[in-house]
């Protein structure tokens, strides 16, 4: 099957490249969001158990809940 890319206009080529770049940026953002969620989940567990006796126990469950929220599928509001 011949490649018809030579018949594409410059605008079509630019659109194809922009679409690929957007897909790559979306993939990188997805990975960063999941990594941030895992990090917050672990930090929340550490805070929950390490600071429990010092009165800062409420921060642990908040971090854990936000970490789980980021790990669940769907669109997210991310606080970096």
List keywords for this structure.
mainly alpha
Poorly predicted regions: none
Largest sheet composition: none
Oligomer class: single chain
Portion in beta strands: under 5%
Fraction of residues in helix:
55-70%
Question: How would you classify the helix and strand content by structural class?
Answer: mainly alpha
Rg for CA atoms = 21 Å
Number of strands: 0
What would the average pLDDT be, to the nearest integer? 86
How would you characterize the overall build of this protein?
Helices cover 68% and strands 0% of the residues. The mean pLDDT is 86. It contains two helices and no strands. With 80 residues, the chain is mainly alpha-helical.
Quick synopsis:
This protein has 80 residues and is an all-alpha fold. Helices cover 68% and strands 0% of the residues. The mean pLDDT is 86.
What is the secondary structure topology, with strand pairs?
Layout lengths: L9 H41 L8 H13 L9
């Amino acid at each position: 099957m011949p490649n018809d890319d030579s018949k594409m206009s410059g605008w079509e080529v630019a659109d194809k490249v922009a679409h690929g770049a957007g897909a790559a940026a979306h993939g990188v953002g997805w990975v960063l969001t999941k990594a941030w969620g895992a990090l917050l989940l672990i930090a929340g567990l550490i805070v929950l158990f390490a600071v429990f006796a010092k009165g800062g126990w409420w921060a642990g469950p908040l971090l854990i809940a936000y970490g789980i929220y980021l790990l669940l599928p769907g669109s997210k509001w991310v606080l970096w």
